[in-house]
Design brief:
By secondary structure, the chain is α+β, with helices and mostly antiparallel strands. A 5-stranded antiparallel β-sheet has the order 1-8-7-3-2, with helices on one face. It has a 3-stranded antiparallel β-sheet with strand order 4-6-5, covered by helices on one side. The longest helix is centred in the C-terminal third of the chain and has 17 residues.
Length: 206
């Protein structure tokens, strides 16, 4: 039987308060005034190939009785039909990474609700403390990274003009054109980056 804890708070979610937690996933639905947060891992499934992802994901969901959450990449489509990408993921990320959190928290209209098993109550109290802790002073990314773009401006314009020509001819009707930026040797704080993005984004979902 799951336990529940509730408390009211209008303090913006600050990922910096969760630096020491083993794993968490946060999702904001600003257009619904709703936030969800999963902390800790009770069980998890990862699939690295599109053909394995769907059956492994379904089997995992069938086994779980509580809340689950995670991410599925665009490459999942390759296991559902004959449409595949010519370009693989250079970072070799799992197609699906899904988990059952130790503590699931949800805030709707300023009210947080935490759901957890009795054996995880101490951990839930730590989550509660982190959610209610005072915000850190505005931070920085420590050492601003120097980014290198894989596509120079001339090549970018060539690609853009070619794609526009295909759009005008009706060969394609929609596309995503991405360029890669890389950095190395930089020291940065992903929790501070998350806080800055949440504070400055106007998107309905983050």
């Amino acid at each position: 039987m799951p336990l529940f804890k509730t408390f009211a708070s209008t303090k913006p979610f600050d990922p910096r308060a969760f630096r020491l937690f083993p794993r968490f996933l946060y999702y904001l639905m600003a257009d619904r005034d709703r936030e969800v947060l999963g902390i800790g891992v009770k069980a998890m499934v990862e699939a690295s190939t599109a053909m394995d992802a769907m059956p492994m994901w379904r089997a995992f969901l069938d086994e779980q009785t509580g809340v689950t959450m995670g991410h599925a990449t665009y490459g999942l489509k390759d296991g559902l039909g004959r449409l595949t990408s010519r370009h693989g993921d250079p970072f070799h990320r799992p197609i699906v990474r899904w988990f059952a959190p130790l503590v699931y928290a949800e805030r709707v209209h300023g009210q947080w609700t935490l759901i957890f098993s009795p054996e995880d109550e101490d951990f839930a109290n730590e989550v509660l403390k982190a959610l209610g802790s005072p915000s850190e002073p505005p931070g920085t990314l420590l050492v601003p990274p120097t980014w290198t773009c894989s596509t120079d401006p001339t090549r970018y314009l060539e690609h853009a003009n070619t794609l526009m020509a295909h759009l005008r001819c009706g060969d394609i009707y929609e596309l995503n054109y991405c360029i890669q930026r890389t950095t190395s040797g930089s020291i940065w704080d992903p929790f501070a980056a998350g806080e800055m993005l949440l504070k400055n984004t106007g998107a309905p979902c983050a």
